[in-house]
Amino acid sequence: MGQEEIESYVKAGQIACKILRDSTKIVRPGAKVIEIAEQIEKRIAELGGEPAFPVNISINDVAAHYTPEAGDTLTVPEGAVVKIDIGVHVNGYIADTAITVTLDDRYNMLCEAAKTALEKAVEAANIGTKFSEVGHIVESVIKSYGFKPIYNLSGHSLDRFSIHAGEVIPNYRDRLVFGSFKPGRAYAIEPFATSGDGYVTESRKTLIYALRPNPKKLSKLGQELQTVFNTIYNDRKTLPFALRWYTNRFSLELLEKAVKAFVQSGLAIAYPVLVERGRGMVAQFEHTVLFTDRGEKIVTTSCSTEAA
Ligand code: MN
Ligand code: MN
Question: Which residues surround ligand 1, an ion (CB under 5 A)?
């Protein structure tokens, strides 16, 4: 892991951290979710990063993968639990980080459960620490507050231009996960706490997609759809995207038709909106942790020693 790579991760982390910290001020009842998302995405670019994925703003029992659609009229409800999950990349090196803002004191403990679980997990994560041990800590902390972790959501290793690089960091003591933290890699640790069942299910709505190139499959589609594919691929490669990013170039109708065709032919994957099965409230906190080849641990998304 070269110095340039480390610096890119750290820069991405500082951008992400700064934006999340400022975003707590714009999450207010009645605020338009699309305006919050666009403001955050604009800030990422202004600070010299690029979005690694569309900003996720998931409210109440929606656990993850909600990003506003073109013309979205959703506003932040009174008393909401709002998770803001952002990914920033610099030269492809990704900082993935999330916070939860609650507008009702009743949910303070739920937020604190997820936040404390993250702090303890990051503290325990060192080279050689088993992912299942970190999962055990997350689960124990969240349960000590009287809540459940979300069992079917997890942290993950990160790679250049790749958000889910193959390894899984569970949010419970998963005895089937044998991996451990290695030098020269980055990991996202992301506890979710809920007052519900502890499981998410896929809703019927998808707002985030990622392309999976395949020239043979692409050649079977019409010219118009190929143009849409190539435009998005030039911009995003295999990183996730939202259709609202491309409505200045294509009609929403064409974009919707295109992604449907891409998913059907295996040229894209869909990330459906994930909802807590028992309709419980959900809080999430996330940090990206980097282990250098020399064994140093860097929490790239931490603002505590923030300089930039
Ligand atoms: Mn995230
Ligand atoms: Mn993540």
Answer: 85, 96, 98, 286
Sketch the domain layout of the chain as residue ranges: 3-202+280-299, 206-272
Contacts of 272 (CB under 8 A, 6+ apart): 65, 202, 203, 204, 205, 206
Ligand 1 centre distance from Cα of residue 286 (Å): 6
Catalytic-labelled residue, pool 65, 89, 136, 156: 156
Here the tokens at position 107 are: 């949910």
Does the pTM exceed 0.70? yes
**What is the DSSP annotation of 213-263?**
--HHHHHTS-HHHHHHHHHHHHHHTTS-B-GGGGTTTS-HHHHHHHHHHHH
Which ranges of the chain would DSSP assign to H, the alpha helix? 3-23, 33-46, 108-124, 131-144, 215-219, 223-236, 252-264
56-65 residue pLDDT tens = 999 999 999 9
CA distances from 146 to 110, 151, 193, 222 (A): 9, 15, 10, 54
**What CATH number has the domain spanning 206-272?**
1.10.10.10
**Domain 3-202+280-299 superfamily per CATH:** Creatinase/methionine aminopeptidase superfamily (3.90.230.10)
Segment 20-40, tens digit of pLDDT: 999 999 999 999 999 999 999
Pairing of strands 282-284, 297-299: unpaired
206-272 and 3-202+280-299 share a CATH fold: no
The catalytic position among 85, 112, 139, 276 is 85
| 174 carries an active-site annotation | no
Rg (CA), the chain: 19
